[in-house]
Amino acid sequence: MTRSTPRPRGALSRSCSPRRDRRFWSSTALSESGSERSVKGPTTRDERRPDARVLRPGIPAAEVESESISRGAGARSLSRRGRSIVLAVACVPLIAFLLLPLLALVLRVSPARLLTNLATPQVAQAISLSLTTTAITLLLTVLAGTPVAYVLARRRFRGRVVLDTLVDLPMVLPPSVAGIALLVAFGRLGLVGRYLDLAGVSIAFTQAAVVLAQMFVAAPFYIKSAAAGIAAVDRELEQAAALDGAGPAQVFGRVTAPLAGGAMFGGAVMTWARALGEFGATIIFAGNFPGRTQTMPLAIYLGFELDFDVALTLAAILLAISFVVLFVVKGVLGRDVGREV
C-alpha cells in the first residue's frame, strides 16, 4: 500500500478558488468570442442598419441610403432658403432708412436747376475753394502721414499704443471739439498762436485754418490705411532689397510703396473725401466767409438759411462725389485683395 504524497496546505483551495474560476471562464469566453468574430468577419453596414432590409423589403440598401441622403439635402436647402428669406426681410428696414433720404435728395434736384445754380458766384467760389484746400490737405497729409504710418507698421516701441490712440482720436472726436481745440492752440491768443501773432503770422479765420481743420479730421484715414498696407508687405522682400545694396529710401520707394500702393491710394482718396465734407471744425476755426473760408459744406449751411436751391445743388454734388469716391476705393482695394488671394 503506497502512501500518497501530501499536498501542500492551501493548494486545493487555490486551484478551486471561485475567483480564479471566474477569471478562467471569462478569459476563455473572451478568447472564444474573439475567435468567433475573426471567423465570422467584420460586421457589414447592412447588418448594422437592419432597417434597410426589414423596413423596405425588396429594395436594395444603396437605394434606400441615397434616398435618405437626398431627403436630408433637400431639408438642408429648404432651411438655408428660409434663413436667407428671414435675413433679407430683417435687412429691409435699415436699407430703406439709408436709401430713402438719398433718393429724396436726388429726386428733388432737377438737372436744369442744377446747371443754373452751378453758374452762380456763391456756388462756384465754394467749389473752387473746396477743391483747392482739399488738394493742399491731401498733399500735406501724404507727406507728413507716411512716416507715421511706417512707424506704426514696422516699429515696436514703448509709446506705440499712445501714438496709435492719438492717431485714432480725431476719427471719434466731435468736429466742434476739434475746432475749439485748434482755435485755442493756433488762435491769436492760443498756446502757439500768440507767438505766431508776434511774428506777424495769423492762422485763424484764413484759408490756412481751413487746411489745418481738414487735415486734423481727415489725416487718420490715410495713416491707418497706409499702415495696414505697409504691415502686409513681406519683410523678406525688403531685406532682400537691402542685401542687394538698396538704402532705406530706395527699399521703401521700390519695394514697400508699390506693394502697399493700393492701401495708400485708398486711404488718400478717403482722406480727400473726408476733407471735402468737413464742416464743424472749419466753421469754428476758420469761420464762414464767402470767397475766403466758405467751403461747400459751409455754403450748404448758409444756403439752407438764404437760398435752399443752392443748398440742394451743393448737397447733390457732394453726394455724387462721395458715391464715386467710395466706388473707386472699393474697386481698388477689391482688386488688391483678389490679387493677394
Give an overview in words:
The protein has 341 residues and is mainly alpha-helical. It has two domains: 59-108; 111-340, MetI-like fold (Orthogonal Bundle), CATH 1.10.3720.10. The chain has 17 helices and no strands. The N and C termini lie far apart (101 Å).
Distance between the termini: 101 Å
CATH class wording of the largest domain: Mainly Alpha
Shape: flat
Q: From the coordinates shown, what is the CATH architecture of the largest domain?
A: Orthogonal Bundle
CATH superfamily of the largest domain: MetI-like
Mean pLDDT: 81
Instruction: Give the CATH topology of the largest domain.
Output: MetI-like fold
List the helices and strands in order: HHHHHHHHHHHHHHHHH
Number of strands: 0
Structural class: mainly alpha
Low-confidence stretches: 1-5, 8-20, 22-41, 45-55, 337-341
| C-alpha-based Rg, rounded | 39 Å
